[in-house]
Records
---
Amino acid sequence: MSPELVLQPQPPVTISCADCGTLQHIPDLPPGGVVECQRCDRTLAKRSATGFDLTLACAIAIFLLLPPAVFMPLLDSSLKKLLFEESRLVSSVGTIYHEVWFPFAFGFLFFAFLFPALRALFQIVVFTSLRLGWPLWQRGRIFRWSEELRIWSMTDVVVIAGAVAYVRAAIPADVVVRIGAWCYLVVAILVIIGDRSLDRRAVWNAIHADAETVPHRHVASCDVCELAAPQRRSGDSCPRCGSRLDRPIAPRYIPAVTAVAAAIPLCIPAYGAAVMVNDQLTGVLEHTVIGTVQLLADHGYWQIGVIVLVAGVAVPITVLTGLIWLLARVRFPNKHGLVIRTRAYRVLHRLVRWPMIIPFVAALAAPIVDYRGIDDIVAGPGATPLFLLIALLMFAMRFFEPRQMWKSAGELT
Ligand SMILES: [Zn+2]
Ligand SMILES: [Zn+2]
C-alpha cells in the first residue's frame, strides 16, 4: 500500500460496531470528519488530515526519549542545604521493590516505561511497513496489540503523579526538576498528540480493506478491528487482526464479576491504611489518601489536594458502582437505557486508570525524600491494596463486554 493511498478518498465501507454489534456504513469523510454509530453513538471513524504520519513521528520520538526519561536524574532534593538526594524514575522501582511489595514495583515499571516503549515500537514497525509498502508478517495482530496497550501505558498518569509527588516532597525539602522529568513530560505530550491524530480506520483499512458492500444478512464480524467478513464463518480467526470472528462474549462475564468482587474488600485496607509513611525526627506520620489531601490543603496546595481527592476517591467509587450497575444489567436486562449504559461504559473505560495516580505518588515521592532517620517518606501499607484494587478494576473493565448488555436485552443476534 503506498502512503498516498491512505490520504486519498477512501471508498465507503461497511463495518461492525464493537460496542453494539450493528453493521454500519461509513461514507468517505473529509479531514476532521467523524462518524458515530447510529445505534450506540460509538465513534466509528475519525478522519485525520495526517493519517498515521504524525503518530509515526511521535512514536519514534517517544521511543528515543523514554530511556533518558527513565534513566537520567528526575528530581533533586535537599534538606536544609545539608543533605542531598537525587532520584531517577528507575530508582522508584528499586525503592518499591525493597520497601513494599514486588508486584507493585513491576507494575510501576511496566505502566510507566515498558508498555509505552513497547507500544511505540509496535506503532513504528506497523506504520513504517505501511508507509514503505513492505510486507510484514502479522501486521494486523501487532497493531491490535499496540491498541490493547493503550489503556496500560500510563505516561499521562505518571506525569500528574510526578507533579503531586513534587509538591508533596517540597513540603519538607527543596526540590529541583531535572532533565529526566522534562524528557518524560515531552514523552507524555507526544503520546497524547500521537493518539489524537491517529486515523485508526485508515490504518485498519490499509492493513486489510473493509467490505464495500452492505450485506443484507448476519455476517461474521470482529469486535476488535470491527471487520465485517461476509466470506468467513463465526469462530474463524479474523483475517485482519487475528482475533476470533464473533468471539464468544459470555465467558468473559464471570472474570469481570470476580475481579469486581475481589476489589470490594480491598477498599478497607486501601483507604483505611496509610499510603505514605513519613518517618521524621519528631515522630512517624502516617497519611491515608484522605490524610494526604488534608496535608496538601493545610500547606496551601489545595488544588493538588483536589486532584488527589478526585483521582484517589471519587473516580474509584464511580468506576466501582458503575461496573456493578453494568454487570447487574447483563443479568437483569432492560431494553430501556442501553445507549446510556453503553456511553457510561465508554466513560468508565477512560476513567479507570486515573486512580493509579495515588500509588504512583507514593512510588515517586519515596526516593525523593529519603533521609533515613531524619525525614523519610516510604510507601505505606495501604499503597499495595490500593494498587491491587485499581488493577482489578482495570481487569474487570477489560473483561466487561458492552455487547453482552445488548445481547441479553435481545437487541443483538
Ligand atoms: Zn454501536
Ligand atoms: Zn479483527
---
Amino acid sequence: MALRESEAIVLRTYPMREADLLVTLFTRLEGKVRGVARSAKKSKRRFGGALEPLTHVRAYYDVRERQELVRIDACEVLESPLASEISYPRAVALGHIAELLDELLPDHESNDAIFRLTLSVLHVLTGPEIWMPVTYFALWVTRLVGFLPELSGCVVCGRSLNGSRAYFHALADGLMCVDDKRPASSEISNESRTLAAHMFRAPVETFAAVQWPKSRCADLRKFLIQTLQRHIEKKLVTAGMLERVS
Ligand SMILES: [Zn+2]
C-alpha cells in the first residue's frame, strides 16, 4: 500500500453502499483517479464539504496493487465553488467543465497544463457570467487534448480562411471554405475565429471585463462540442443543458 498526497479537483461522486462515495479525482500528481471515500457521507472531519464537484482539494489516498480503485483517506478544501453563489447557469457551467474533464482525461496520466487551465477558469467562473469562461475552457481543453484542428485554412483545398467565410460539419474534422463546404454545414464567423486566436495568446482574466452574451462565440462552442463528441464518440450530456440556459 502506498500513501499519496496530491492537489486534486473533484470531478464526480456517486453514492455507493451505506455511507461510502465513489469519487473521481483529477489529481495533479497522476491525473484521473477513481477511489472510494469510506463513510464520506458521515465524516465531516475527513471530507467536510470537500467532495462537491470542482472543489480544489488536497487529497490523501492509498494506492493498492492490482486494484483499480484507490482508497481516499481524506480531502482538505483549498478552494470551493460553493464560496460563490450557485445560480442555475453557473451550476450547469460547472457541470459542463466537470463532464469535459471526466470524458477527456485518460486514467492515471498527469496533465499539468489542463490542471492549471481548470483552476484559472474556475477563478473567473464565480458570478453569473458563464459564457466567456465556458468558451475559453472548451477551446483550450480541445487543443490540450490534441483534438483541435487547424483553424486558419480549408482542410480540403488548403486555402487560407483568414478574412473569408468558413464552415464546419458534424462529421468532418476542421474548417472548409465556401467552395468545399458540405451540405448542411454551419458557418463559424470571422469574429469568433479572431477571438479564438486571442484566447490562445492571453490568460482567461484578460477577457473578464469583456461583455460576453450567449450569442458571442456560440458558433465556436458548437464547433468545439461537435469536434469533441466526434472524438469521444458520444454525446456530452451537459452540452444540451448549456444550450437551454438563457
Ligand atoms: Zn477549400
---
Amino acid sequence: MLVRGDAPAENLLVTGARVLDPAAGVDARIDVRIDDGVIAQLGTSLDRNGHRVVDGTGLVLAPAFVDPHVHLRVPGREDEETIASGTAAAAAGGYCAIVAMPNTDPVVDSAAVLGALVEDARREAAIPVGFLAAITKGQAGAELTEMAELADAGALGFSDDGRPVVASGLMRRALQYGAVTGRKLALHCEEPTLTRGAHMHEGAVSAELGFGGYPSVGESVMVERDLALAAYEERPLHLLHLSARESVAALRAARERGVDATAEVTPHHLCLTDEAVRSLDSNVKMNPPLRSREERAALIDALRDGTIGAVATDHAPHARHEKEVPFEEAPFGVTGLETAFAALYTHLVEPGVLPLETILERMSAGAARTFGLDEPRIAVGSRANLVLLDLDATWRVREDGFRSRSTNSWLLGDTLRGKVRATIADGTTVFSELRA
Ligand SMILES: [Zn+2]
Ligand SMILES: [Zn+2]
C-alpha cells in the first residue's frame, strides 16, 4: 500500500522530448498527452485539447524513479527529515514512489505506530510512500513482530534495516511467516561479531589509516546464510545495499538455482571505492562501507546483467552536529535522493561504463519490482509517473540546494552532469524547474 497527500490529477501535453522507456521499448521524439493523470496518447503533433503544455525540447522524458530504501526518520527525528521534506527531496530527485524503513524512534513494530505514519503520509506526502515494518520487536532481534497484523495495517514488507537478524532460527520463522503475510523480508546482511568496531572496509586503506575494518565477508557470510534459509523455506527475500563481491557471487548462484531473491545497490557503492575515505570526510562513512575497486566492478557487472535489479539510495539523513565530528565518531549513512540520477549519469553513463537505458530501468521498473509495486511505464493507459531529464545540464551540489532537512551528501561541492527538470508522480506534477 502506497499513500500520498491529496493532489488533483492533471491534464498535460509534454511536447518535443526524447521519450525513452527501455522496459517498454520506446525511444522516439514524440508528444505525450496526459488526461486526468493517465497517459492517453503518444504521437507527433498531438492536439493540445486545452491541456497545459510542458515544453520538453532538448530533454529526455523517462519513467520516474522508485526508491525501495529510504530513511524518513519519523517518528522521532523530525530535525533530520519528515515525510514532507523526504518526499519533497524524492520529487526533486525524479522519484514517483519511495519505501521508508522502520528503524525510527519508536520503531515501526506495531499497527499503532504504522497507522499513525500512514495518516501523516495521507496529509503530507508529496509523492506516494510505502512503509516497511520491523521483523523483530524494537528491532532487538529477539521476538518477531505481529507480522500478519502489520501486513493488514499496510506494511509493504518487513525489515530490521540498520541491524541484521542475527539468530538463524528467528530468521527462519520470519521467512515462514511470509506465507501468511504475503510480504517479503528486506535484509541488512551483517555478521556483527565480524564488524565490531569497524569504521570502513577492511583492506589496504584501512590498514594505512589505522581504522577498524569491516571485511567483505562480514556481509557475505550473512548473505549466504539468508539465501540458504530462503532456499530451504522456498520464500522470497530482498537483499539491501549489497557491497561485497562474494555477496554478488552468492546471489548469482542462488538465482541460478531458482531462489526468488532480489537485491539493490546504492549510487555511492557504484561510484566510489574505499580510496574516498582518505579524505576523512564523514560523508563517505556508511554501512556497508565503500569497498575496493574489484568489488565496485563486481557491483557494476551485477547491475548490468540484472543480478542486482534495483538501484536504491539508502537515503540516510543525519544532523550536521552528528556528522561534524572525527571520522571514527561519526554515524553511518549519507543522503542520496536528490543526487542519485546525476551521480550515476556522471560517474557511469558519461564515461561509458553503463548505458543510460540500464540506469533508467534499474532506477524505475527494476526498483518497483522489489516490493511488487506498479512499474512506471510510458504507455497509453498507464498512470503518469514521469521524469524530465536534462542530460546536458551541469550543476554544483550545494548545501543550500537540498529539499531534504539534512545535507550529509557525499557529493557536496562536486559538479555533476544531468539534472532532473520535472517530476510527475501519480498523475500530478510534484517538482518542476521549467518555465510555465
Ligand atoms: Zn542497512
Ligand atoms: Zn538503510
